[in-house]
Amino acid sequence: MVTDDQVYAKECEKLQGTLKKRGYPESFVQNIVSEVSRKREKGRQESKSSYTLSPSGKNIFSLGGNWRLVKELKKAQIKTQDSNRPMLAQESAENLRTLAFSENPSLQQSAALYYLHLSQKLTTPLPADYLEPYHALLQSSDLEVQRMSSLSLVNLLVDENVNKELVVQLGLLEPMLELLESGDSVIQCNSCACVATLATSESNREAIISAEGIKTLLVLSKSYDPRIQQNAIGAILNLSRSEKARFVLHNEGAVPVLVLLLQSDDSEVQYYSSAALSNIATNPLHHQAMLQVGNGFLLKMLQSLMSSSVEKVSCQACVCLRNLAVDGKTQTELVAMNILCQVKSLLTSSSEAIAEAAVGLLCTLSVHPSNKHPIICEDLLESLALLLRSHRTKPAIVGHAASTIKNLSASDFVQDIIESSVVEGLFHILPYKDVPEECLVYVTACISELITHGQIKSHAVKQVDSCTIITLLNMARQQKNTEMAFQAVFIISHLGPNEHTWHLLKMHMGEVLGYILQFLKQQEIRFQHLGLFSLCAFSADAEFSLAVSQSPLADQLYKIRQQTEETQELLQRAMTQTAHMDHS
Fold it and tell me: What is the Cα–Cα distance from 489 to 473, expressed in whole angstroms?
């Protein structure tokens, strides 16, 4: 049979393990265990000196039966250990409620310890009845009770064994925010962690803002205790995902605090701060205030963090810079800071996340006309070509790379594009079957833009082979992804008249006639126009013209002609009537 002392010893051992896992110092853990043991022994002595014998000879405690409840809870813990399943009976909830609302700190400690035990063992959601006692435990006058109860609530929230919205609905947010101002660092650390987890819910963010929790969190973000600081900034980051919270953070002076925290030696603090700043920077209304901090200090710090050895910090620095660089002045300022060499280095990173963040920033910088020449001179076109080849299945990377190339395709840089391997890189992607349609849309749109320049078109023709033609024809017949079909037909129509390309196309005459007919039947005018353009582009070939005359295309062309004549007649009548009304 397991004795109370054995249960207590095991619980103390588990408590020590949990606290150490949470990063608490060894000295602090030992102090807690010693204090709990001291108070337990004191409670034992009190209970021994205050009992009388009943007529039956059994001990009767003078604490209103509360010690009996403690024993019942300990038995519940034993059952939990034996069955590896928590005991969540209604009777246990009532016992916990009685102990939690007791004015005896030792009894409250028993309830808090039981909750800590539950938070470690629980594998199913905690019933709402079990949350009510937290009101009394979090507001207890005993620090040990506050420490254990706040820690157990953190465990339950992190493991998603309690509903975050329900915790707030039951009124536990207010006592949790009050604990943020506790003089005890452990309680502050735990309560910050609770608030940070609660803030992952949109509705909870509103409640935290309404309760003015942001002010206290900003104060704690300057704490010298790294655990408190991390949790406080983590809470601010989660809150910054709300537009309303971003305005409150801005108005409460969060920006200078977050900017200064970028200098921290703690990579977690750097990440949380830069991520929160990135969220705030999604609204251009905040940019002026952000860029004025320390006379442009923010841009310099973010540029420095781009070279961080911590992946997520480097990524977040790029994202924040991209969000800030929405106007020409900031874009040119960043290029003047020699940021392009860092971007080039990040583009070759083995990390997909870093490459994506870097090419996203480059795409934004390439928008401004005065930045195009520095980007070309930095040989970033070649970096983009390599990026397309190595990340062909990643829509975000391919999309940003293709957009950047389009931004750089001004007539002044046509020769640079031809001399790089960008065009080859784009055509290289097309035949691969593992390339998502989203990537193909970006690639074909980019090729379509490039081949509007005569010199690039001549260069692009050299990249076309039978596999390319088959791929483009398959895209052209797409009915679900009409944008991809449109871009594919645009490429075929512009490259097709070339002798080399037409030779390859003639082997697929049926497919060519098929996509033209499909486009002519579309209701959208741009598809009809492109279908007619394609038809005209190939009509010089006698064999093609004969095939058209013998296909359903001839009937469709007649229908379009009739529709056009009717439209022209109606248009003429409308214009005549309008002119008559003007004269009258």
Answer: 8
Could you tell me the pTM of the whole model?
0.79
Instruction: Please name the residues in contact with 81: beta carbons below 8 A apart, sequence gap of 6 or more.
Output: 10
Q: Where are the alpha helices (DSSP H) in 223-351?
A: 226-239, 243-251, 254-261, 267-280, 287-292, 297-305, 311-324, 328-336, 340-347
| pLDDT the model gives residue 8 | 66
**Bridge partners, residue 53, by sequence:** 59
Closest CA to 537 of 473, 506, 492: 492
- Residue pair 90/129 in contact (Cβ under 8 Å)? The answer is yes
DSSP letter for 126, please. Answer: P
Cα–Cα distance for residue pair 400/388, rounded to 1 Å: 10
Q: What single DSSP character describes residue 125?
A: P
Per-residue model confidence (pLDDT) at position 68: 46
d(CA 495, CA 409): 18
| Amino acid identity for residue 230 in this structure | Q
SS3 state at 60:
strand
What gap in Å lies between CA 7 and CA 486, rounded to an integer? 72
Alpha helix segments (H runs only) across 84-133: 90-100, 105-121
Q: What pLDDT is recorded for position 456? A: 93
Break the chain into its structural domains and give their ranges.
1-153
Closest CA to 324 of 360, 349, 353, 350: 360
Write out residues in the chain with pLDDT < 50, as ranges: 46-86
DSSP type of residue 61? -
What was the pLDDT predicted at 299?
A: 95
